């Protein structure tokens, strides 16, 4: 499980139902996809959807700052590698771009561990196979009063028993 290579891909896919948040205009689902390849051939995949741009900056952070820290290390030591990245990024700051890039790598590392052991992450982490209820999401204030109600009614018609709604703005 030695980290042999780290690759990134930038993807942009139009929303089927574009969210109207009231504070962000989102045309596409922009994703940074990270692949961690191990010397044993296992490839773990992680992804990040940062909402408000910075895709190339995130990709550069992965390749310039974090990839050199992980190459040659054991991908199975996820917590140790997180601490290594955390300590190495002190000067650049421990929030925003740096932590977002670390997050995508962390997801890819856990995915590699699960694939190597042939287990889903919930089982790897000691969870139970009980189903979890899903909720409808996307009732944003930017839809307006009637738009929020209409979207909520669609979720109820689809059988959702819970709905997540935006009730406040993040920015003033």
Provide a descriptive summary of the structure in words.
- It is built from 5 helices and 5 strands.
- It has helices at 55-70, 78-88, 97-117, 121-124, 144-157; strands at residues 3-14, 28-38, 43-48, 136-139, 163-165.
- The longest helix has 21 residues, at 97-117.
- It is globular.
- The N and C termini lie far apart (47 Å).
- β2 (28-38) and β3 form a beta hairpin.
- It has 172 residues and is an alpha+beta fold.
- Strands 1-2-3 form a 3-stranded antiparallel β-sheet. A two-stranded parallel sheet has the order 4-5.
Concise summary:
This protein has 5 helices and 5 strands. It has helices spanning 55-70, 78-88, 97-117, 121-124, 144-157, and strands at 3-14, 28-38, 43-48, 136-139, 163-165.
């Amino acid at each position: 499980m030695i980290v042999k290579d780290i690759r990134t891909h930038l993807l942009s896919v139009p929303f089927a139902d574009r969210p109207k948040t009231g504070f962000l205009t989102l045309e596409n689902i922009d994703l940074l996809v990270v692949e961690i390849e191990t010397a044993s051939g296992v490839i773990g995949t992680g992804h990040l959807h940062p909402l408000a741009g910075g895709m190339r900056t995130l990709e550069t952070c992965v390749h310039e700052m974090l990839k050199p820290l992980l190459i040659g290390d054991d991908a199975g030591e996820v917590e140790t590698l997180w601490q290594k990245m955390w300590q190495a990024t002190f000067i650049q700051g421990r929030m925003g771009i740096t932590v977002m890039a670390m997050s995508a790598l962390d997801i890819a590392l856990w995915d590699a561990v699960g694939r190597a052991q042939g287990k889903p992450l919930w089982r790897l982490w000691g969870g139970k196979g009980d189903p979890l209820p899903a909720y409808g999401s996307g009732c944003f204030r930017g839809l307006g009063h009637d738009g929020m109600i209409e979207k909520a009614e669609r979720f109820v018609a689809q059988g959702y028993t819970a709905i997540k709604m935006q009730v406040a703005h993040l920015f003033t």
